[in-house]
Amino acid sequence: MKGKSLLFGLCLCLWTSLGWGQRVIEVPWYETTNTYMFDIIKMELTDEATVITGQVKYFPNEWFRVVGRTVLRGESGKEYKLLKAEGIELNEQVFLPESGQMTFQLYFEPVDAGEKKVDYVEGNHETDWRIGGIVLDEKPQKLEKESDCLIRGKVLGHPSSYRLVLMGYEDDDRIQEPYAIIPVRNGKFEYVCQLGESKMYWLVFTDELAKSSYRSGVSFFIEPGEVEITIQPEDAYTDSEIHGGEVNEQYRSYQRLKEDKFNFKALYSAFDSLHNQNLSFTPEAQKLSELMSENFKNRQKHDSLYAAFLQLEKDGKMYTPQMMALNEKKRELSKKEQKWKEDYIGEHPSLTTYFLLMDDLRNLMTYRLHSFPEELEVLSFKDLPRLENMYYTIYKPMFPKHSYTELIATMLQSLKQIEVGGHYIDFTAPDFEGNPVTLSEQIKGKVALIDLWASWCGPCRRSAKSMIPVYEKYKSKGFTIVGVAREKTVQTAKAAALQDGYPWLNLVELNDAGNIWFKYCVGNSGGGTFLVDRDGKILAIGPSPEEVERILEKMLE
Question: Which of 14, 335, 432, 531 is the least buried, fewest Cβ under 10 Å from its Cβ?
Answer without folding.
Answer: 14
